[in-house]
Amino acid sequence: MKPIQLRFETSFFVRWGLIAGLMLLMAMVPVLIMRTGGWWKMVMPLGALLLLLLPWREWRMAVRMIDDEGVTRHDGKRFLWADLKKLQEVNFVSRYGQTGALNHLDIYFVSGHARILPLVLDRGYEAIRHIQQQHGKPAANNLVQVTPSPPDPQPAPKSERCSLCGDLGEYHYAMQKHGREDEDTSLPPALANLKFVKELRPGSNRSPELLRCPECGSYFLYKVGYEYLATGSEDEQELCRMTEQQAEEILATR
Questions:
Q1: Considering the chain, what is the average pLDDT of its residues?
Q2: Residue 253 and which of 96, 169, 220, 233 are 20 to 30 A apart at CA?
Q3: In the predicted structure, residue 39 carries a pLDDT above the cut 50
Q4: What is the 8-class DSSP label of residue 170?
Q5: Domain boundaries, the chain
Q6: Under 8 Å between Cβ of 66 and 2
């Protein structure tokens, strides 16, 4: 298996940078207008600083790389699949108490745990799908090994026989960089056959979109990223095939 590298999208740092600036401003303004001293002048800035630890905690726990042996977090801590205890999906919950789309996947090991945040980590959904397929069930070391009988021939999945999206795989990634056009890549042309269904973050810039094939009904998650660099801007696109359960969770989110 080729290692899966995960990195935070620029929007994660921009969003938390704006939140951090707003919290510090809200904490400092009352302090500056107070004419007398007191413990409020210390408590309010300290409270804002404690809130700023939240994005640092998310960054530290987030998975940076996945390979055949285990996962590596952004803070460098390493966990092995041999020590895996369980996988736990955490979904959004609406104000009406309804379970919504997947927010993150917690991966628990004997010595700690790591987290995958698919909405802010590029290739996040691809990584979750791989982990669920390879490590979603506990190893049956104590079971008696029985040679199974040959399975009956099964027809190919409906998506593979689809004339519109049959050429699309589980995951596709493309990137274009200014000044290095000879290295540009693009998503498969079959992307144009998919129809828009829903935005995952309505109103936000470059919100991930749920797409659907009009012929076979397969769902896909489409993400667009942009990063401005001194050496030239980078545009990224991701297309990930979704399971029916994942799509239903997204559709159930208000």
A1: 77
A2: 169
A3: yes
A4: S
A5: 4-135, 171-252
A6: no
